[in-house]
């Protein structure tokens, strides 16, 4: 039940518990207990809402920053990753393979604000060797959800 439950709530965390119990073929109390157990174990880490900010009047700029660092003796990349993820602007930090070591995602109000974060805060950290900033221009799909819909002609077809 646990794996199936996780797959369902990953796609829709707002699903009604009764509906979830029916889908899984168990009692609602079993779903409640299992979710509480997974929250306590740190398997379920949070619940988030996916928002298409382009459809609002709020201006946001998202960026992906590749970071090359010198790992610290005995701690590897963990301590520098922790220093980075403590900044409120930072949404996520990932250890990655390839030419860079970390991938940092963040949001700001403008290109200038994001650039200032990278140059004033991120690049000045001791073990940072270099960064490469990539601004997100458009999101097509995020967390498994397609954000762009193709235009479909809604006009009624008239034939003679």
TrEMBL record:
<dbReference type="InterPro" id="IPR011008">
    <property type="entry name" value="Dimeric_a/b-barrel"/>
</dbReference>
<dbReference type="InterPro" id="IPR050684">
    <property type="entry name" value="HTH-Siroheme_Decarb"/>
</dbReference>
<dbReference type="InterPro" id="IPR019887">
    <property type="entry name" value="Tscrpt_reg_AsnC/Lrp_C"/>
</dbReference>
<protein>
    <submittedName>
        <fullName>Lrp/AsnC family transcriptional regulator</fullName>
    </submittedName>
</protein>
<dbReference type="Pfam" id="PF01037">
    <property type="entry name" value="AsnC_trans_reg"/>
</dbReference>
<dbReference type="InterPro" id="IPR036388">
    <property type="entry name" value="WH-like_DNA-bd_sf"/>
</dbReference>
<feature type="domain" description="Transcription regulator AsnC/Lrp ligand binding">
    <location>
        <begin position="65"/>
        <end position="138"/>
    </location>
</feature>
<dbReference type="InterPro" id="IPR019888">
    <property type="entry name" value="Tscrpt_reg_AsnC-like"/>
</dbReference>
<dbReference type="InterPro" id="IPR036390">
    <property type="entry name" value="WH_DNA-bd_sf"/>
</dbReference>
């Amino acid at each position: 039940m646990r794996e199936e439950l996780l797959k369902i709530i990953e796609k829709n965390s707002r699903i009604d518990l009764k509906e979830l119990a029916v889908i899984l073929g168990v009692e609602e109390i079993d779903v409640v207990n299992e979710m509480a157990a997974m929250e306590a174990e740190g398997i379920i880490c949070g619940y988030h809402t996916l928002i298409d900010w382009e459809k609002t009047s709020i201006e946001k700029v998202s960026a992906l920053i590749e970071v090359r660092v010198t790992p610290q003796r005995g701690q590897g990349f963990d301590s520098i990753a922790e220093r980075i993820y403590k900044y409120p602007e930072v949404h996520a930090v990932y250890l990655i393979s390839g030419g860079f070591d970390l991938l940092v995602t963040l949001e700001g109000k403008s290109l200038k604000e994001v650039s200032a974060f990278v140059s004033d805060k991120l690049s000045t950290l001791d073990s940072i060797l270099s960064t490469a900033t990539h601004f997100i221009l458009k999101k097509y799909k995020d967390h498994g959800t397609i954000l762009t819909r193709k235009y479909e002609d809604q006009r009624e077809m008239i034939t003679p």
